[in-house]
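Hi Y.,

Following your request, here is the sequence exactly as I used it, all 354 residues.
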Amino acid sequence: MKQSERIPVLPATIEPGATDRPRGPVSVVPMVLFLVFLLWTGRAMAGPRDISAGEQNMALPTQVGSWKLSEGHRRNEPKAIFDYMNGGGELYLGYRFRYLDVYDYRDPSDTQILLEVYQMETSNDAFGLLSLDSDGQEVKFGGDGAPAGRGIYGAGLLRLWSGDIFARILAEKETPESRDVVMQLGKSVTAGRAQSPVPSFLRALPADFAGYQLDSGQVAYFRSYLVLNSIYFLSTQNILKLDLKTEAVIALYRSTGVGQPKSARLLIARYETPAGALAASRSFMESYLPEHKCQASGPGTPATGACLVEDGWVGYRVIGRNLVLAFQLPSEQIARLSLDRSTEQVHNWEKNHE
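Below is the corresponding structure, written out as tokens. Let me know if you'd prefer a different format.
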């Protein structure tokens, strides 16, 4: 990693009107993750190693404003992630995490700005980490013609996605100066990089159904049931049979009608084979709905059905390699309409994607 000379502080671009979005039901653990992150700054690191010159792969400034880069940058491999962070490591491993590089900036009063750069296997994995929480100010890096990254900033913490990199930049104390330094470091992380598109599987979600509209700010992409449980809890077990070869999305839908529950959710998981999707649907039925008699399809038709549970109607349907689940719907009819609309959209996505 080549290091540039001291550079002046320059602001990143904050999206106008994007401050303090209301927290939706999809974002159930961002505060937990944030508190865990705060705890990392005081840990004793057992397992990380120094980064050699040959392994350094981005130009970071040696000083930004009053903050100087300390010596001894550290690399954490997947097997050492739990030594580095006391909790939360499974979320990164669930997104095919390769390694983490840590950089420590200090000002003359020893106030810290911590930069963590997570190298992920793909851009989709890095996007998934950012998608866990949409609260805060949207930040764009790079020009309109050549976007280099996007992030979310709040309370001194910048969470950043740029291609196959996910980064966290955290100021120990938030001040106007430290905020500007955090933004400048975000620019340094994304410099020379080209932003990747969001995962194409997000387009498998319908824009609306039966009086419900997709909230595009509350869409999360994931592969692991542990990540899913941090977004929307289903079970302590992997009842959807998710693994690192599957991909899944869960989204919040807001009601546009009168007399309906204010929100509902759709989850779509894609497996390697249709048999995998069918096995997941059976596991879901046996584990999540064991005491409910579902209005299921007849023999020879796709596995589909709807059940009334404590917080509304749940719908499920297997569509080839895909399993669609709908939650918190006001009636069996709307549950089935959500599945019909999802079926149409999944088929459209597959037609354009494959």
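The chain has two domains: 3-190, 200-353.

Thanks again,
Q.
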